[in-house]
Amino acid sequence: MLELQTPWFLSLIFLPVLVYVLVPAKKKPQSAIQVPQFELLSQVSGITPQQGVIMLKRTKRQKLIVVFGWLCIVVALAKPVWVGEPISREKSARDIMVALDLSGSMIKKDFYSQDDKNITRLQAAQQVLKTFAESRDKDRLGLILFGDAPYLQVPLTEETQTWTDLLEQTSLGIAGWQTAIGLSIQVFSQQKASNPLLVLLSDGNDTVSKMPLLKAAQIAKKHGVKIYTVAMGNPQAEGEYRVDVESLQKIAEITGGKSYLAQDRVELERVYQEIDQLEPQIFETKTYRPRVSLHFVPVALYAFVMVLLLLPLLLRNKRSLPQQKEAHQ
């Protein structure tokens, strides 16, 4: 589709007509006679000759060229633009941060892989999170690993493969939930996340964080961060292997999320499938139409026409030069 960015310049089309009508050229008819020896006669008579102006009558071709040139200039000033078909692009409107517990208990081998191999809790979490990430290929994913002090393993990114590669490069440490929550809030704020969602996965209880649990959850709620908590392991176990299900439930309730308990790999997969269904992908559709400026086309067209008209004259003059030289010789 063709559009004009400055269509008001089209009003200049009739400007030459107005000038011709309102300010016409001064014409004064006078009689004239051609006589030989005009300069000698003027000297004898004592009359000083005055210079005059002769306006040659223009041909139709010349008039058409002038009109065509003016039209090309006006159209170029109107800035014609070719507008292409609408192009839509979908951009994810949901940002998900995964906080993974790397406490010493995550090395315990009480989970089984799909081929019935005995694997650690960390390996089970990595396998399930990889599948979860592949199903959220349009979302931005981030990864926080919390040990003595939580650290950002992967900032929010749309590169799912990079996210899963860095997920596999983990090491074990001591857990601290609230500091992981605080770091996720900080990352969400810095990267201006939309619809922020935190998935907190842990298999133990928190004994390291200095910030009170309820306060950390309330701050997350204040910043609009919804937290889904996933507990791995046996809640009846003793010591560091005991899962603090109640605390994880409180975190989820305060922030409007949901809490889950997974005691094997199948349950862990089911948990992330449910999270995937509860928090469907959200897209922001941005539509734009490509524009190509065509202001140079009328100017180039006029130049091309002028070249075609002047080329025969140049060739004719070039041919006449040798003939004139022969005549002089």
TrEMBL record:
Cited SMART domains: VWA
Keyword GTP-binding among record annotations: no
Keyword Transmembrane belongs to the record: yes
Domain of life: Bacteria
Protein keywords: Membrane, Transmembrane, Transmembrane helix
Domain VWFA positions: 95-275
Protein name stated in the entry: VWA domain-containing protein
Organism of this sequence: Vibrio paucivorans
